[in-house]
Protein 1
Amino acid sequence: MARFKRLSVEELVVLEKQFVQFLAAQSILAEDWEKIKSTKPVEADEIIDDFSDLVYGSVMSEAKYLERKTPRTLYCYQCLSDRFVLIALEVDTDAGIDLSNLDMAGLKHISTKAQAHVCTTEKPYMKSRENEIFSMMELGCEITEGAMFKVLGLLL
């Protein structure tokens, strides 16, 4: 069973070169892979799960920042070795501002308004760092470079 989730067929197509390298590292040649797929589908699924875990694990281990936007809130997370640091921006309901598609220029404009509130907190990881980041992505977070986190950090 995959630690994260199995890559979709479309994702596997995009990562075909890396998957072929993965199979080669396992001493599985192209004709062997075709035979495994047709005669041992459970084993083929396990191989795809292993590759999926490798890909997701690599992406999660490299992630430094996450963001999630809703119409009224912007959640920016820094992913440290032992915990998340959250900086959140919330706008009042009557502010008439939708943060769902906020960019850096809009953030600088909004952060100066009285109807915006910034707060911060920390949360230690309850599972492995990679699994926590994956769980956050399943809840709608996206990996970012951290620009909004850094700007919001200046407002604290």
Protein 2
Amino acid sequence: MRCYYSTVASFYVQNFGCRATQADGAAIERQFEDCGLERAGDPAHAEIVVLNTCTVTSAADQDARAAIRRVHRANPQARIVVTGCYAQRSPDELASLPGVTQVIGNSHKHQLAELTVLELESAAATPDLNFSPQISSLLQSNPRSFVPLTALLTENRELRIENSIHVSDIFAHTELLAAPVFDAANDRTRPNLKVQDGCDNRCSFCVIPYVRGQSRSLKLEDVLREVNTLVASGYRELVISGINLGRWGRDFSVASNNLRLATLIRAILDDSTLEKLRISSVEPMDWTDELISLAAHSSRIAKHAHAPMQSGSDAVLRRMHRKYRPWHYREKIEKIHAAMPTAAIGADVMVGFPGETDAEFEETRRVIESLPLTYLHVFTYSARPGTPAAGMPNQVAAPVARERNRVLRELASEKKRAFMRSFVGKSVPAITLRAASCGASADENSSRPVTTEALTDNYLKLRLDGRYESNQWLHVDIRSIEGDALAGIPISQ
């Protein structure tokens, strides 16, 4: 269902959190563009501002609330629409904030643009509401062009509209928003395509299944269509991602379903001319021998593996309700490293989980130290309302958790530095991202040296002296390490 009108209003979508949220934001932008709206350059100049929230930690919630207040101060006439995971989890809390006109949960995010213009139509009948000139003109010029509320109710009887809140049971939700998302700084390289959403795991600390619903996959033909559209547009590297990417295809209700992530990757390689495919985070037990072999033997798959660990302690993993033990995790990482010795291998690790003792933390530290991991994402546990872990005894004191976080970040820095040093004097493939003056944005009149940022096949930052066109694959001789990046010179072709 689409909505059209003749007078152009503007929108702005601000995303918080993970790649899946960024991908949802890109799909929301598509919805508004299909409705005929134009994208504003910033929230201060938009008639409609959408805040696409995360709720994985209490800090994420706080960031969203602060952003709502900033937008309302800077643009008091804007229609503020809050969506995403925080909106699904706690819609009433968000609806009470000044300036918020609608809260649309993940359950109705696929209808967000329609619901937003529907709200405008309803609000237009209230004479004491103030609108910007653009929205007033839009409503007056075509007041009946919007999708009728009755039509939406006919299609979805569970739609809840109460105090501008649109939320229903997320576990009944079967839609999957999919649109490639681009890094604002590198919008001509490395688009990210979400091919899976939701999660059927029930880790005791995680709120995501309750705000994103059950695991569901983008159909193979839809994935291939998106991939080939991006390739035709000139993109040379693509990242595929999901909330639980390794579960792609397992939700399709077809007889003797044998679709797996490796099936999808083979299809992308066989049915497109994509030069480089990068695989986002995959749960450790979904790094099957088939997937590892496929990644190792194809030059078109980036040598990069990310496998969340969370803890190296068996007792902590059991309290987390994770489906593997430390020895399972070790086996997977060692297999990946043996198959791809130059690959970047990353992990998510959580510190301060309820009841985590000094000895259990030390188990985690030792496991990380002994494995060929090249980088870590270290998180401090944050209690999420409604999760089993939030009610567990022996919550770890904040200063203790912060110190453990520091210890692991220092260890991660040491391991990454050693990984980077191993490439000095060697040649690596890399894709160029953007050119900039040293320490600033590019400036043709600047006397400072111009460098070009790049990313190696195995996920290391790289700086090249001089200006190079973005979205180009180069072979680079690595000469040194400069700060957090390699430095090198492209090999003459």
Protein 3
Amino acid sequence: MKHPTSRSCTGFTLVEMMCAVAIAGVVSSLAVPGYQSAMQKTRRCEAQVALLQAQMVQERFRADHAIYGSSLTEIGLPATTPSGYYALSVTDHSKSGYEIQAAAMAVQSADIQCRHLRMTVDGYNIAYASGADTSFSNPIAVNKKCWAQ
């Protein structure tokens, strides 16, 4: 009977195992930021849908009253998006228009450039703005990215 030598045994060496771990680490470090970016964009879409829903409800409210609603409570909408990633608020209203803002909360606040979204309706004109803070100072290209236009 022949005794196995160290060369005839099969299996992984420590060096091979460390190479596999290093490759997995590099691949995951490239994949995780892309995944997080996709999740931020998905949550941002939720805020946009909530703002558009608020626009629709504001128009219904205006049809029954002489002015647009001054708060979300008044028009019958919740103050956060369904998943709770954005806080919504009516920041201005008049007979001819209103302004609704969405501010990122929780993990969505890591979406720095698009942390704040604003929709302004003035008569038939609708303007979309975004920013890292409430100054909504994003340049046009970044604003289009935030609103996916």
Protein 4
Amino acid sequence: MASRRPFAVIGLSFMALTETVGVAWSQSAPTLRFAVIGSSGQTEVPFAIQQASLDKKYGINIEIIDFAVPAQKYTLFRSGAVDISTGNFVDLLRQRKGGNAIQAIHGFQAYSSRFVAKPNSPIKDFADLKGKSIGTFSTTFLDWLIVRAAGKKAYNIDLQTDANLVPGAPPLLNQFLARGQVDAALQFSQLTLAPIAQGEQRILIDGRR
């Protein structure tokens, strides 16, 4: 494999990934370092590749590199520590504009992030988030940008300025909420399943996209 490899960001689509890898890397059987936020369920793509033996079929080795905060993957890319990760088109355009040679593989899997609160919270809808402490894993991530735009249009509320933001890695947001350090949190849907089932959280808004 060449010493300088193009960065690749995928949108959770292992079919597109394996086709590209099969063409580009099958001859030398390299190790593909796959960066994921394991706590958010992003390991499902490399897991599916391994379970279906697609890595063996296309002559690659999968190594999972776990990280915590969405923006951290671009630091990993720049340092040459990873080869591929999940992402979104906003980050893709931003990174390309900044001079990073990122290639994209379009995905077809839908997912969602949710606003959650404690079951007994007085917060009922988006308007009630104004002035509250809101946990978020990133204010530059596509999910947050959509929330800001939709909130401005529908409620004339910009959570970036009209709420007290508390940043944290996704696993920490559940802890913040449980301890009462935030009133609500924008969270990966996978990390809300267990707390909701256990009666520790309830869904305020399901931001499917």
